[in-house]
Specification:
Keywords: Flavoprotein, FMN, Oxidoreductase. Its cofactor is FMN. This is Nitroreductase. Belongs to the nitroreductase family. This protein has a single domain, classed as NADH Oxidase. It has about 260 residues and is of the alpha+beta class. It contains 9 helices and 6 strands; from the N terminus they run βααβαααβαβαβαβα. Helix 2 crosses helix 6. The strands form 2 sheets. The chain has a 4-stranded antiparallel beta sheet with strand order 2-3-5-4, with helices on both faces. A two-stranded antiparallel ribbon has the order 1-6. The structure holds flavin mononucleotide. The site of flavin mononucleotide has 14 residues, from strand 4.
Length: about 260
């Protein structure tokens, strides 16, 4: 087995390999071209996403895949509810802490500033913000929408597993040149989604995912990230310089 080749990199460079490129190239796309994506591609995305790890391999995910008329029916029902009866619908779970502590609060505020500025919407313009929220329910114009559910009898650990599965879906989509947007907003309308999609009572609607081609392929990521030093602490490493990065892929090392 060959010794892994190490590479010097510039400080802060995020992309060092094909998988790095896919992870760093994914962004929450909110404007899709609408160009169709075939069932075969979506099945392949799910086929690979199912290799997500899960505690004791229980694989606690369930996905409703929508396109065409089926997606349009869901969109129409949710848009109507958003227009007329928004307050009558609440998610079955809390996504955000009601009292966000720092540094999360200021990150959320920064998100709001960057997001609405990019859309030319004043943060005080409630009507324009609501119109933007409504676009969620049209899957932002994407040709394919997923509704992701989990069995409510499972515990919080299984939600970790589900998150890994959803991320795999986003990355596998990116591997096919597709963009995506995970959307917790769908959980609010579980009472509408349940009969429309025949979701059994024990399943809780967790989120939606829009998948398609970004209208602007080079739009890219809008949201910044905290530095590694802000969320990771290191102990016990011999090399303190952090300039050496393993590059050889294990399967290449086996054959060389
Ligand atoms: C579980 C989850 C739910 C989300 N829900 C929504 C949503 O309902 N609507 C939306 O526009 N974006 C939603 N997002 C996208 C986030 O706003 C986005 O991931 C974040 O701002 C970081 O931006 P990036 O993904 O482009 O890097 C969600 C993201 C995650 C992971």
């Amino acid at each position: 087995m060959s010794v892994p080749e190490a590479a010097m990199i510039g400080e802060g460079a995020a992309v060092q390999s094909g998988i790095d490129e896919i992870i760093a190239g994914r962004f929450a796309c909110r404007d899709f071209s609408g160009a169709p994506v075939g069932r075969g591609t979506i099945e392949q995305i799910l086929r690979v996403a199912r290799f997500a790890p899960s505690g004791a391999n229980i694989q606690p995910w369930h996905v409703y895949v929508l396109a065409g008329d089926a997606k349009d029916r869901v969109s129409a029902a949710l848009r109507e509810a958003h227009e007329t009866a928004r307050e009558a619908h609440v998610s079955e779970y809390s996504y955000y802490a009601s009292d966000l502590p720092e540094p999360y609060l200021q990150r959320r505020q920064q998100f709001g500033r960057l997001f609405y500025r990019s859309l030319g919407i004043a943060q005080t313009d409630i009507e324009a913000r609501s119109a933007q929220t409504a676009k969620n329910y049209a899957f932002f114009g994407a040709p394919v929408g997923l509704i992701v559910t989990i069995d409510r009898r499972l515990e919080v650990g299984s939600w970790l597993d589900l998150g890994m599965f959803v991320q795999n879906v986003l990355l596998a989509a990116a591997g096919h040149g597709l963009q995506s947007c995970p959307q917790e907003t769908f959980s609010r309308y579980h009472r509408i989604l349940r009969p429309l999609l025949s979701i059994p009572a024990e399943q809780m609607v967790v989120c939606g995912v829009s998948i398609g081609r970004a209208r602007d392929q080079i739009a890219g990521r809008l949201m910044p990230r905290a530095d590694v030093a802000d969320f990771a602490s290191f102990a016990g490493f011999e090399d303190q310089s952090a300039t050496q990065i393993e590059r050889t892929r294990p399967w290449e090392a086996e054959t060389s």
